[in-house]
Design brief:
single chain; mainly alpha; Serine Threonine Protein Phosphatase 5, Tetratricopeptide repeat; 71% helix; transport; ARM-type_fold; membrane; protein transport
Length: 826
């Protein structure tokens, strides 16, 4: 194709040499043109310099990339020549004929044809001769250059020069007359000899056919080892051939009838007959992109038939997908109430064509087959939202193909997996309601061909869509449909690995399921309870690793339902029984977390939360439910919570719960409080025992029972006993720093209750504790922690002194406020 295939440096060198010649000759050409008004012979000199300049276009040293740069520089100079010639001969066009004849005597064909094309354009612009004949003459003369690279650029220059003079007029004399009658005043009327749009179509189609032949010929010139390089060069030049189709599509007078009868048949004939995969694939794609959607709809069958005649190496999948996507976009964006023409036949036509294509190409990769179905599903759900059978038909066809190929486990992140993900996501995005997928029975069957990770990804995408669209489950059918679609996230699967529950994806997916459960919203309380109970049974089969994520939302929904139902006591005769049944269901669900999931802290928190909820609802024997929840929490604390830090944290939660409850009778409250004190004293580490006892002491001061009628218990004797027990344990600690911390904490606790008027707190006992703490501070080694404890001790002592002053002031105020007795009479 070109003789020198050296490196870029060599190409740059040859290009620089040619451009220097072009600039030098163009300079002389322009100088001659500027002097033509003084000496008419200078025009011929300008043409001679133009011929010398165009001789550089004969080079065989440049690759297509660098030849294009030379071509652009030369064309710029030829445009200047054309402008000057039009200005010179516009007034005396008769003299232009001699110039046209003189140019034909140039020896080299490439410079001669470039000048002939230029002067031919000047002829047409000056109104000389028949435009139709000139165009026909020029396009036929260009056959003289059969070198692929030079011929392509020559014919491209022909298109560029004649772009503005191609006749784009009505095709008959009658239509021409009507066109001239509608012209505005001052606009020149068209002449019959100027040609019609038919002449332009013939001109462009001839040029297109010849350029395509030259382009294809490039593939077969040169050694076979340079095949890839030739293909790369061809791809760089493809736009030159496609420009012809763009020009045809830009014709304003081109009608649908002309496109159907003349334009498309000629284009398809040339594409099919060239038998070149690169040319066929590119040109078919050009046809799809450049011509109007109405034209495609009118010639859909012919175009698809031509696709079946293309070479086996042509990726027809890309062509069909592009056509389907474009027509789908066109039909969906059509004016409301005005369905696009032949819309009802689109799906049937493309579905049949896709089936035929897959049948005729047994070696077609599975990822291409799935990608083809992606476009079909997109067409079905976008253009026919009410025809779910179309989408289901597409999924069924794909399932049959997968079965025939014997594929059973598609990798989620492979080529096929990525296309299958796109396919399955389309209905989710378009329907805006995942529950509609239950009406596509083939959808789940196709999804099951995924491996475990792929199924989980699709199920997660469904849940995200339901959360975004707030897809509410109103009845049992909705819940069953949703659970069947996301079953891969609810139960262990055969394709699931043994360690899948240890991954971050597993936790994220189960959290999505947990959020989904809050969308269960029935129209009444009874139905809501039945739905939650049904969901609990289904989720209970998910395995121990899932229960920790999926059961807590059910429990909280039950608590929410209890609070919602608590205001309907007068509306339901079985109100107490139903409330109790809800708590029984919640308790059984929490029990599954203990027995099946083998959890401790989470179910304990849920028990305590249930106790607070039950205490807020004044149903019959609610104190027994509160007692049962708290007792089960304490049982877990004693038997299942092992880590010392966890035990301390859980004990604090239990204390907080008992302080929140206000409707427990004394007989129920005391056992729970005593058990809490016992749990605090049984902490593994002595410092934890001390801190826990200090916390538990608050129960007997701030706690409330049914008998206290909303007043705090303030059992100072019990508080002091617990604090003394804590002080005794603190004295047994052998670490000086830890012992000092415990003493300071006890001192703060004593001070707090002393400030709160706890009469059982003895000031002498506090002074004794201060003395022991100060003696202990002397024995501490010098350190930052010791300094910090010393500051804390000073602050505690200062606070105690202030408390003494406040108590003394309060007592004095009490004495002064007592009424004086009347004096006896004298």
């Amino acid at each position: 194709m070109y003789e020198n295939s050296g490196n870029t440096t060599d190409q740059e060198k040859f290009l620089d040499q040619s451009i220097r010649v072009v600039k030098a000759e163009s300079f002389e050409m322009k100088r001659c043109l500027m002097k033509r008004c003084l000496d008419k012979g200078k025009t011929m000199d300008a043409l001679k310099h133009a011929l010398q300049m165009l001789n550089e276009m004969r080079t065989a040293e440049l690759s297509p990339k660098f030849y294009y740069r030379l071509y652009m520089d030369s064309m710029h100079e030829l445009q200047c020549l054309e402008v000057n010639l039009v200005q010179e001969y516009a007034q005396e066009p008769a003299k232009l004929g001699n110039l046209y004849e003189c140019v034909q005597y140039a020896s080299a064909i490439i410079p001669r044809l470039y000048l002939l094309v230029t002067i031919g354009g000047v002829f047409i612009k000056c109104g000389l001769g028949s435009r139709k004949e000139i165009l026909k003459d020029l396009v036929e003369m260009c056959r003289g250059v059969q070198h692929p690279l030079r011929g392509l650029f020559l014919r491209n220059y022909l298109m560029q020069c004649t772009r503005s003079v191609l006749p784009d007029f009505p095709e008959t004399e009658e239509m021409l007359v009507a066109h001239n009658d509608n012209l505005s005043k001052g606009t020149p009327k068209l002449k019959p000899r100027d040609g019609t749009v038919d002449d332009t179509i013939d001109f462009v189609l001839i040029n297109f056919a010849e350029m395509n032949k030259l382009w294809v010929r490039m593939q077969h010139q040169g050694p076979s080892k340079e095949k890839e390089k030739r293909e790369k060069d061809r791809m760089e030049l493809r736009i030159l051939v496609g420009t012809n189709l763009v020009r045809l599509a830009q014709l304003e007078a081109l009608t649908e009838e002309m496109y159907v009868k003349d334009v498309l048949p000629s284009i398809l004939e040339q594409i099919v007959s060239c038998r070149d995969p690169i040319s066929q694939e590119y040109l078919m794609e050009c046809v799809i992109q450049v011509f109007a959607d109405d034209f495609h709809l009118a010639t859909l069958t012919e175009f698809l038939n031509a696709c079946g005649q293309l070479q086996q190496d042509v990726n027809i999948k890309i062509l069909l997908i592009a056509l389907v996507d474009r027509l789908a976009l066109y039909t969906t964006s059509y004016n409301e109430g005005q369905p696009a023409p032949t819309k009802m036949q689109l799906f049937e036509i493309f579905s049949e064509q896709a089936t035929t294509l897959i049948k005729n190409r047994p070696d077609m990769p599975l990822d291409d087959i799935v990608a083809l179905h992606v476009s079909l599903v997109s067409l079905a759900v976008k253009c026919y939202p009410d025809r779910q059978d179309y989408a289901n038909m597409t999924f069924q066809g794909l399932r049959q193909v997968i079965e025939e190929k014997g594929v059973t486990d598609i990798e989620a992140f492979g080529k096929v997996g990525r296309e299958l993900t796109k396919l399955l996501n389309i209905p989710i995005d378009e329907y805006k309601n995942v529950l509609r997928l239950s009406q596509l029975p083939e959808y789940i069957k196709v999804m099951n061909y995924f491996d475990y990770r792929g199924q989980c990804n699709i199920a997660s995408y469904m849940i995200q869509n339901m959360l975004e669209e707030e897809t509410v489950f109103r009845n049992q059918d909705d819940v069953d449909s949703a659970f069947s679609l996301i079953s891969s996230l609810l139960k262990d699967q055969e394709k699931q690995s043994s360690d899948s529950h240890e991954t971050e994806e597993f936790a994220d997916e189960q959290n999505l399921v947990a959020r989904l459960l809050h969308l269960i919203r029935a129209d009444d309380v009874d139905s809501q309870f039945l739905l939650l109970n049904s969901a609990r049974k289904t989720l209970g089969e998910g395995g121990r690793h899932r229960l920790r994520y999926t059961l807590p939302p059910i429990i909280f929904e039950l608590y929410r339902l209890v609070l919602q139902f608590s205001d309907m006591k007068d509306e339901d005769d079985k109100w107490d029984a139903k409330i109790r049944k809800m708590f029984v269901c919640a308790m059984g669900t929490i029990g599954a977390l203990v027995s099946t999931a083998e959890l401790a802290e989470l179910p304990m928190k849920l028990y305590l939360n249930g106790a607070i909820t039950a205490d807020r609802v004044p149903f019959e024997d609610n104190h027994t439910v509160v007692y049962e929840f708290v007792s089960k929490a304490l049982s877990i604390l004693e038997d299942d919570v092992v880590d010392s830090r966890d035990r301390v944290r859980c004990l604090h939660l239990t204390v907080g719960t008992l302080l929140k409850t206000t409707h427990l009778p004394e007989e129920n409250w005391q056992p729970l409080a005593n058990q809490t004190v016992l749990a605090a004293a049984k902490m593994f580490k002595k410092p934890d025992q001390v801190r826990s006892l200090v916390t538990v002491a608050a129960l007997y001061w701030h706690g409330q029972t049914l008998e206290t009628n909303g007043e705090k218990m303030k059992n100072g004797k019990k508080v002091v006993d617990i604090l003394r027990k804590a002080a005794k344990i603190a004295r047994e600690c052998l670490e000086p720093l830890v012992q000092q911390q415990l003493f300071i904490q006890l001192l703060s606790a004593y001070t707090y209750y002393y400030e709160d008027n706890c009469s059982e707190v003895n000031v002498d006992h506090i002074e004794e504790l201060i003395a022991r703490t100060q003696d202990n501070a002397v024995q501490l080694d010098v350190s930052a922690e010791a300094d910090s404890l010393e500051k804390q001790l000073g602050e505690a002592i200062r606070r105690l002194q202030l408390a003494k002053l406040d108590v003394a002031a309060a007592q004095a105020t009490t004495i002064r406020s007592e009424p004086e007795l009347p004096q006896p009479p004298s």
